[in-house]
Amino acid sequence: MPPPKDVVKIAIQMVGAIPQLIDLQQTKPLTSVLKDVCDAWSLPNAERYALQYTDGRQTYITESNRGEIKNGSILRLTTSPDQEAERLYSGIQSNNVDVKTDSLKKLASLSQDVTFAQEFINRNGLKQIFHIVEEGNDTGEMLAHTLKAFMELMEHDFVSWETLSPAFIKKIVSYINMNAVDASVQQLSLSVLENMVPTSRVLFELVKKEVTLDRLLTHLQVTNTQLQLKAMALLIALLLAATDAERQEMMDYLREKNIRQFIHKNIIHSSEPLADEMAHYLYVLQSVSLNLCERRMRTSMDPYSQEQRELLQSLRQTAFESESEAPAGTFSTERRRSLCAKEFRKLGFVNNSNPAEDLRRAPPGLLALDNMVYFSRHTPSAYSRFVLENSSREDKHECPFARSSIQLTLILCEILHVGEPCSETAQAFYPMFFGQDHFFEELFCICIQLVNKTWKEMRATQEDFDKVLQVVREQITRTLSLKPTSLELFKTRVNALNYSEILKLRQTERLHQEETLAVPVLELRERLKPELLELIRQQRLQHLCEGTLFRKISSRRRQDKLWFCRLSPNHKVLHYGDVEEGVQSPPIESLPEKIPVADMKMLLVGKECPHTKEKSSGKQNKDVLELAFSIMYDMEEYCLNFVAPTRYEFCLWTDGLNVLLGKEMTSERTQTDLDVLLSMELKLRLLDLENISIPDTPPPVPKPPSNLNFCYDFSHTEQ
To answer: Which residues does the UniProt record annotate as the domain ELMO (predicted)?
Structure first.
């Protein structure tokens, strides 16, 4: 007979004593449980003791979390949080350096526990930490432990960051601005400021003023990858908290300092593999930079703006300079207006009498005008060649420069997600973005010439405009998917992917689709599916056995802690636990927490997950919803919450967990993998039928013969 639900069998240890095996009644007050345990070991003053997990984060057991204790848990009898907080509060004030250092080290460790943190903060412990930082001149191990303890205590959100004194903040800033400071202290100082910046406008302005961009760039150029990472994190935090004008100013300054070229050479192409965290920061930097185009993209042209009219006229004058050189008095106003309209028509504007009307659509708005002007000024020969080549054609095959530029700008904005908010987890950036200062404009210059080239290859007319731009979009997206490392490489590859190549690719895809739609082939597919689905199931379980590094998402900043989760080789237990930065694949023995697969009841995804519901009051980030999933276990009372690092990991984990639960794999990746495997298997099986048309119905089976006397008689053996 199973034990009652409110009773768990646990072991309790104490140094120098024989462990106790007890049945813990969850309805019994914790004070009574502690008294019974202390009485068994003849310990007085039971109120001075507490129970604590022996593994993992060694959390204290309280009335609020005691429900998480499972059968077989091993607990430790230790000093109560209030007693420990009192002891450490006294220890960090000691005049003995060793005692003080040991106390700060223990404080940094215990502050991860919310119960202890509350007790320590209630004793005004943060004030003492502020005092050590503000008054102390030590920059070594003691200071590192102090800052680590401060970070852990602030993590619980008991105290607002806005309560920090200016003296404390300036001291933290000084550690970043000084050269002769221990790297671990600088890393922690950068982390403190990174957490501080998003919390208030006042703190943002203070940090921006005290920590110059030059100083951050100095830290970015060190060989210590962790220090480099923390400096990048603070830079990104400042950019995200800035106003549009401040962000523009900061990005302009970074451009002057050639930060992109440095990142391209020393971070993206360094000998060390790029960390996931750094990949995310590079994605955000790319996104923030591209989003500077958003204001121009969403602004329609104002026909009464002198500056905008001059930009528009400069396009005409650059293209038809010789024709416009006639003195002003040579033509009447009407004649000049007619000449301008004719030249704007040659430029490819739809409304040639008032070309500003073409630019009133937003997006792409003024961004299209900026791109055209950039193209005309930075590559004048290519611009003139494009315009004159098409304006002189009389066979209705001319490619309209202005109309194409406006549509191409819109296409590039959509492909590069200009104007969209930054994802909290994405890591996908284009390496070539960091190899070029004016990336968007330079990309436009390459692609507008591609439009002209593709137009000629398709022998297109005005009626084919949308078809040509559709092909160009496909050329750009297919080339970008190859992640070229430079714009030159992009240019080479996108030009090699000409219209005939696109047609071949489309034809191959279409033929493949037609092949797979034949009735006998469809029947064969259905017969192969079970075997291939089993192969996919095994692959998913194998991926779970290898494990994945996850990040905990907090409301205040993107990353909180790293943790690792993996399935046991026998597929019966899910092991997980916190890990330190830099650990890629910890052994299964080092993961203290576990969930038996037999206890898993349900898989939740997206908005159904508890950790996404908790944040529903704020602005919900779409990508977190797309990557969130949870496992309900132990009579559906508890949940283990995940936010996958990528969509790929999300698909593999949700599939694998569904397999463990005995359910169907439902992710889009399953269908993709199944299609790939079916395609390969079908091609192998149909090799002998190449160039032979497969009939929709099988050939008729002939009637049986009238007699079967043609069978060979084996009874007569040769002598």
So the answer is: 307-480
